[in-house]
């Protein structure tokens, strides 16, 4: 496992520190011994397939569920024992969880009112955050009268309004269409990241994780697989799972030989004149900017990603650069240093 | 505080009141059924070695009331189910004013039984009621709807069916609404006729709701009281006297609380037995067959 | 089909209305009566001025209905919330108990409840009547409200918890406003039950001026089986039905959807 160091800050205790966090229910382990650090202003994505423990982690951080073991430190304070309402943690939910019976402004006001903030200060802060998110026009609308993107912005506004010490986002884009998601990524980064509070962002979409986060933590079955920058994870995956989970189209895993297994990314395979693996073209998907080729070879089926305008014969030979090889232990799945 | 403890505390007040009003009376009546408690004992309970239960076994009036109650429940619930299904199908069909139609169809169920029973007494009146007016219009002699021992029970059934069918219809309507329209549309595309859709799709999918309606109505009908008490007072000649009415009369008219409690507990046992049989037939067996 | 259904449901009610508005001669002789002595409001005058007057019973029923509805909701809301949040065997057992009590014919409880009322001095007390009524309504109310709580997205309450709202505040500011339609339909059903309940009112209340409507009507009816003044009775039944008629017609949508939704989700 490669543990990348967080961004260096002057105060080593600043930010979020997760120590040995676990959650078990009735003999089932949802999360085991998670250790992570997130620096102030850093955005960490929790990435993994459904049921991997990423939402569990988020709910433990928020205090919505109780941890079986472990500590959560925020700027050096142990917040593990605090109730959800006392942690000053904001969360953007997958469904946005806007109160359907309240207007946008009242949705934002409820939490402040409960805390006993005076009407004047409340109004000012709400107006400021509405302005920031360009929601001022919509302040009197009900959630049902908003588009998906607008609802998401209201949920963000509610999270930012509280000046939280930690921001959590649970698949905040999964209810938006693909185009909007792409457009919103820079906006979300601008609003959330680089401030004073750490941001933890849960998603199952690797593109989103790579686009949003400074670092990505990959989880599987409640166990942390690897944490690092997108590039580290892609180029030096800790194991076969991370290698296969990141990257689309998925990595080619050749049949194991003598306890080890070779992985080759589709874009790293290239046609060569001689000396490569003989392969036969089966099918072609033309994507406009690229094309994906499905080939049959003696080393199994292979996927090959090449430029869109490349014309290839039916029968060809495939080669690759040795430094693009990714070797795995075929039993444990751990990545090996070399062949 | 653990969530489970909090949940229990939240439920506690309601459960305590339920225990006081449901569990305690049954236990108390069970105990009282072993006591002599009547005007003869000055209304204070004295243990009497199961004399109440011995009396019950030989009490022809109790057994006749049991038969009357069972007959009433079986016929009422059967008719309510058939009519309720028809009513639910009509109420389910889309169309203008469906909400109003549902509300108006529901009215008989929403109004007090005693009020409606009084209304039915007038409808059945001999010779001035509207039913006899209709008979007269056809040249037939007036009929004693509530004074003919052989047939009066049928007219208590009719009044009960009229009053409670809307409830059955509402339950079945809930069931109909839970069936996705696509299922029916697909059958239509496959060329099914309305009768076939009803038999092959609607009824099988309605089964849980039908079971619930039968269990609920069966239990209520076995305890029928308001209707017969106001409509016929158990007459003529005891031909419509229900078990609940007999228990009431024992306590309030004959002032024999011990025996009244015995009738209550006997009725309760009968009720448990029949609903258990209904549960096994309607709920449990289909569940196992579907596995 | 629709008109047949309406005829079946409404004809007996229409006949009551007709009976209440005509003179005894018109009832007996039909169309043979002169037009001037056919329609009359005399029946209504009679029951309105009777001793005790009909409005007294209506008022009593309304008082009991209001108290019962308030008490039932106060107990049912926390219970339904706890039941919905609770898992495992306890939830199963409580649900089963609620179902069993929901179908239980309440008349079988009258004897012991009567003794309870006498022992505790609750007889002839309108507000005390709402205690057993609330208990009898609780199973249905809890089941309906539990289904309604289950409908609310869990994330809404999580969001409110994160904002620091404790349980009473979450209920007041977030959950109950969203449950308003279900609360309304549950309240209406409880009120209907309370308005219509007979055996317990019959045994707990003996003073005429405290009678609720059902035993009052039955008492008038019981005065004689064959020679009752039907016009006056019909007027009483019409007046006794009117409040419910209005409730059902005004809240028809929420009654029907409340019951059907509860049945589907429960």
Characteristic terms for this protein:
heterotrimer; A: alpha+beta; six-stranded mixed β-sheet; five-stranded antiparallel β-sheet; 19 strands; globular; C: 266 residues; 13 helices; 78% helix; 0% strand
The biggest beta sheet of chain B is recorded as: 2 strands, antiparallel
- By secondary-structure content and strand pairing, the structural class of chain B works out as mainly alpha
Radius of gyration of chain C from CA coordinates: 22 Å
Q: Report the oligomer.
A: heterotrimer
Task: Describe what this molecule looks like in 3D.
By secondary structure, chain A is of the alpha+beta class. In chain A, 24% of the residues lie in helices and 32% in strands. A six-stranded mixed beta sheet of chain A has the order 6-7-8-3-9-10, with helices on both faces. In chain A, a hairpin with a 5-residue loop joins strand 18 and strand 19. The longest helix of chain A is centred in the middle third of the chain and has 15 residues. The model of chain A has no long low-confidence stretch (mean pLDDT 89). With 291 residues, chain B is mostly helical. Chain B contains twelve helices and two strands, in the order αββααααααααααα. The mean pLDDT of chain B is 87. Chain C is mainly alpha-helical. The two termini of chain C are 31 Å apart. The longest helix of chain C is centred in the first third of the chain and has 32 residues. In chain C, helix 1 packs across helix 12. Chain C is built from 13 helices and no strands. The chains are: A alpha+beta (339), B mainly alpha (291), C mainly alpha (266). Chains in contact: A-C, B-C.
What is the compact description of this entry?
The complex is a heterotrimer of chains A (339), B (291) and C (266). Helix content of chain A is 24%, strand content 32%.
Topology readout:
The complex is a heterotrimer of chains A (339), B (291) and C (266).
Chain A lengths: L15 E10 L2 E11 L4 E5 L6 H9 L6 E6 L2 E2 L10 E4 L11 H11 L4 H14 L15 H14 L4 E5 L7 H15 L6 E5 L2 H7 L2 E6 L2 E6 L1 H6 L4 H6 L6 E2 L6 E5 L5 E3 L4 E10 L3 E8 L2 E8 L7 E5 L6 E4 L5 E2 L3
Parallel strand pairs in A: 3-8, 3-9, 6-7, 7-8
Antiparallel strand pairs in A: 1-2, 1-4, 4-5, 9-10, 11-12, 12-18, 13-17, 14-15, 14-17, 15-16, 18-19
Helix pairs in contact in A: 2-3, 3-4
Chain B lengths: L2 H30 L2 E2 L9 E2 L3 H7 L2 H33 L5 H13 L2 H11 L6 H8 L14 H27 L2 H9 L4 H29 L3 H6 L11 H10 L4 H34 L1
Antiparallel strand pairs in B: 1-2
Helix pairs in contact in B: 1-12, 3-7, 3-9, 4-7, 7-9, 8-9, 9-12, 11-12
Chain C lengths: L1 H20 L2 H6 L12 H7 L5 H32 L2 H16 L6 H11 L5 H26 L2 H9 L4 H30 L2 H6 L8 H10 L7 H21 L1 H14 L1
Helix pairs in contact in C: 1-12, 3-12, 4-7, 4-9, 5-7, 7-9, 7-13, 8-9, 9-13, 11-12
